Amino acid sequence: MYDFHTHFIPSEVLSWLKDHQQKVDARWVKKDENKDDFLVVNGKWGFELKKAFIDSSLFLSEQKDVGVSHSILSPIPQLFMYDFTDDISTEVSRVYNLALANLVTSHPNELSALGTVPLTNPVKAAKILGEAMQLGLKGVIIGPGIEGHMLSDHFFTPFFEEANRLEAIVFIHPLLCEEPRLKRRMMPNLIGVPWETTVCATDILLSGMIDKFPKVKILFAHGGGFLPYQIGRLDKGFEQWDLVSHNLQARPSEYVSRFWYDTVLWNEDSIDFLIKTVGEKSVVPGSDYPFDLSVWPPKNSSDKGVLSLLNDHPINIS
After folding, report:
1. What is the reported pLDDT for 153?
2. Backbone angles phi, psi at 55, to 5 degrees
3. Which residues are registered as beta bridge partners of 48?
4. What is the rounded CA–CA span in Å between residue 252 and residue 245?
C-alpha cells in the first residue's frame, strides 16, 4: 500500500531553524505536559512537533506496523517560509530538499519525497524545482498561491513552464485560511483548509491552465476540497456564462479527471463519491500522517492513481 500524503522534517532542517531562530522567529513552546513541544514559526505557524515528524526510524517503524509499503514524504506547510524574503525560502528549500533526497536514498524501497520551493520568486522556484528533481525527488509541494497572486496568474508562469518541461508532480497543499468568520472552533482547519483548496482548484480549472501546461501533474490535497462535490454547478455556469467557459475547451466535469486527488477525507462515502466523480486513476491514497487528523494507513488502498501519477517517475518496491 502506498501513502502519498505524509509529512517529515529532517534533522538538517531543525538545525537550520535553530541556527536562524531569531531571523524566522522560531520558538519551541510547551503547551501541554502530555504533548511534545509546539514549534511556532513567525508567530503564527504553530504545530505539535511529534516525534514521528523528526525521527525517521520511528516513522519507518510505524509505517511498517500499519502495513504501508511506501510513503511519499512532503515538507510541512508551516515551513514553506513564504512569509519571508525569497533568499530565506530559497536557502531552507535547498536544505530541506537535499536532506529528504539523502533520506530516500537510504530507504529507496520504503520512501520517496517531494521538495519545497521559494514560491514567492517563481524564477528561483523553477530553478529549485529542477535541482530537486536532479536530486531524485518526484516534484514539489506548494501552497495554493501567495498574497496577491493565484497560481493561475502569469506571475507563476516561469515555475509552471519548468514543471511542465520536467513533467513534475506539483502537490498543492492549503495553508490555514485567515477568513475572519472562521476564527473559532478550529474552523480554520476544519473547513478553511478544504476551502483554500477549493478556491485554488476551481481557479486553476477555469483558467485553462491545464491546457497550457498539460504535462504538469497537479495533485490536490484533501480530496480537492469541495470542488468534486460542486462540479455540477461549474458545468451549469459553463453553459450560462462566457466568463466561465471562454478559457476552456470542454466542460469542467471533463477536466476534473486530468488532476489527481488524495483520499484524506476521513469518510468512505466521500472517497467513493470522489472516485466516481474523477475516476479511480485520479485518486491516490493519503493519510496526512503524522498531523493530528491523520488516519494511518490510508482508507483507500488502490494503487491505480499512484501508478498513473508516477508513470514517468517509477518507484521500486522490493
Report:
1. 97
2. -110, 100
3. 38
4. 9
Question: What integer pLDDT is reported at residue 31 of this predicted model?
Answer: 73
**Cell numbers given for 282:** 485520479
Q: In sequence order, what are the residues at sequence separation of 6 or more whose Cβ sits closer than 8 angstroms to the Cβ of residue 92?
A: 13, 16, 79, 81, 116
Q: Are 17 and 54 in contact (CB under 8 A)?
A: no
- How does pLDDT run across 178-200, given as a tens digit for each residue? 666 767 776 776 776 888 999 99
Report the predicted TM-score, pTM, of the whole model to 2 decimal places. Answer: 0.94
Other C-beta atoms closer than 10 Å to the C-beta of 70 total 20
Which residues in the chain show pLDDT less than 70? 45, 176-180, 182, 186, 189, 192, 300-301, 312-318
What distance in Å separates the CA atoms of residue 98 and residue 12, rounded to the nearest whole number?
A: 9
Q: What single DSSP character describes residue 188?
A: I
Q: How far apart are CA 218 and CA 159, in angstroms?
A: 13
CA–chain centroid gap for 224, Å, is 11
Which three three-digit cell numbers place residue 130? 529542477
Task: Label residue 305 left, alpha or beta by phi (over 0 means left) and psi (-120 to 50 means alpha).
Answer: alpha
**Other C-beta atoms within 10 Å of 180: how many?**
6
Fold that domain 2-309 belongs to in CATH: TIM Barrel (3.20.20)
241 and 281 Cβ atoms separated by less than 8 Å: no
Domain ranges, ordered by start, for the chain: 2-309
Q: What is the C-alpha separation between 289 and 269, in angstroms, rounded?
A: 21
Q: Pick from 144, 122, 140: which is nearest to 132 by CA? A: 140
